[in-house]
């Protein structure tokens, strides 16, 4: 089983749609969770951290369910500029700040 | 301010040759990480430096891979006797040691081994 699993997509959605991505992680000892965004042939950039209480940043909402080892990202009112690959990221327990990345979910927002 | 920089941006080499990839972290960041991203794969952790501590090399795939960090700043990742399966984008990231430990990535070095 992969440490972090995501549906690779692609998710093709019209502008203005709401889209949700899910992710599961295998190590119950993980403590930190993130969503990164990666544009084609670019480096990953932090989109948002994910907290147990859930958190929102503008059109983006992240949720964490520790019991189910499940993380989600909701994008409302999607824009063309949201087209990218969204990476689910979990810290690797055992010290340090090493991260384990999912393979990403590709989003294409269309007119 | 300046972000993480990496050089070269692209490197094409022949199988069996050695390559060196360079990373300049964000000034003041004491933690530095190397990852690689192969086609269709997630980012794979390679090695982690934190201050003057011994590096965490647990992600290095073989003894052909090594990395150094001189003066607590610039880092070099060396791959000896390159193989075709080493072809990937090698990404460097840096972060603060405490507080907000967000990792900021450089643009990567795209390595192609022929």
Tell me what you see in this structure.
The complex is a heterodimer of chains A (111) and B (114). Chain A is mainly β. Chain A contains no helices and eleven strands. In chain A, the strands form two sheets. In chain A, strands 2, 4, 5, 9, 10 and 11 form a six-stranded mixed beta sheet that branches. In chain A, strand 6 and strand 7 form a beta hairpin. The radius of gyration of chain A is 14 Å and the shape is globular. The model of chain A has no long low-confidence stretch (mean pLDDT 93). Chain B has 114 residues and is mainly β. Chain B is built from no helices and ten strands. In chain B, 0% of the residues lie in helices and 46% in strands. Classes of the chains: A mainly beta (111), B mainly beta (114). Chains A and B meet through strand 5 and strand 10 of A and strand 4, strand 5 and strand 9 of B.
Explain the layout of strands and helices.
The complex is a heterodimer of chains A (111) and B (114).
Chain A (H helix, E strand, L loop, with lengths): L3 E3 L4 E4 L4 E7 L7 E6 L5 E7 L4 E3 L2 E6 L4 E6 L8 E8 L7 E3 L3 E6 L1
Parallel strand pairs in A: 2-11
Antiparallel strand pairs in A: 1-3, 3-8, 4-5, 4-9, 6-7, 7-8, 9-10, 9-11
Chain B lengths: L4 E3 L2 E4 L5 E6 L6 E7 L5 E8 L14 E5 L5 E5 L8 E8 L8 E2 L3 E5 L1
Parallel strand pairs in B: 2-10
Antiparallel strand pairs in B: 1-3, 3-7, 4-5, 4-8, 6-7, 8-9, 8-10
Could you write a compact summary of the structure shown?
The complex is a heterodimer of chains A (111) and B (114). Chain A is mainly β and 111 residues long.
The low-confidence parts of chain A are none
Rg of chain B, Å, rounded: 13 Å
What structural category characterises the helix and strand content of chain B? mainly beta
Strand content of chain A: over 45%
Main sheet record of chain B: 6 strands, mixed
The ordered H/E elements of chain A are EEEEEEEEEEE
**How widely separated are the two ends of chain B?**
37 Å
Percent range for helical residues of chain A? under 10%
Strand content of chain B: over 45%
Helix content of chain B: under 10%
Query: Count of helical segments of chain B?
Result: 0
Multimerization state: heterodimer
Overall body shape of chain A: globular
What does the radius of gyration of chain A come to? 14 Å
Order of helices and strands of chain B: EEEEEEEEEE
Could you say which overall geometry of chain B the principal axes of the C-alpha atoms support?
globular
Largest interface: A-B, 19 and 23 residues
């Amino acid at each position: 089983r992969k440490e972090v699993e995501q549906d690779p997509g692609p998710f093709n959605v019209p502008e203005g749609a709401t889209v949700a991505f899910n992710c599961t992680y295998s190590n119950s000892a993980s403590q930190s969770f993130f969503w990164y965004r990666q544009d084609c042939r670019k480096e990953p950039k932090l989109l948002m951290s994910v907290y147990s209480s859930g958190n929102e940043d503008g059109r983006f909402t992240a949720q964490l369910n520790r019991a189910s080892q499940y993380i989600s990202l909701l994008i409302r009112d999607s824009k063309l500029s949201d087209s990218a690959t969204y990476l689910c990221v979990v810290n690797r327990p055992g010290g340090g700040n090493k991260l384990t990345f999912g393979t990403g979910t590709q989003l294409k927002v269309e007119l | 301010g300046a972000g993480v920089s990496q050089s070269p941006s692209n490197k094409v080499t022949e199988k069996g040759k050695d390559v060196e990839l360079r990373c300049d972290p964000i000034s003041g960041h004491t933690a530095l990480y190397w990852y690689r991203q192969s086609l269709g794969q997630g980012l794979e952790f390679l090695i982690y430096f934190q201050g003057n501590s011994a590096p965490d090399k647990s992600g290095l795939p073989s003894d052909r891979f090594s990395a150094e960090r001189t003066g607590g700043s610039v880092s070099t990742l060396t791959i000896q006797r390159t193989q075709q399966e080493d072809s990937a984008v090698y990404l460097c990231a840096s972060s603060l040691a405490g507080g907000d430990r967000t990792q900021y990535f450089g643009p990567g070095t795209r390595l192609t081994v022929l």
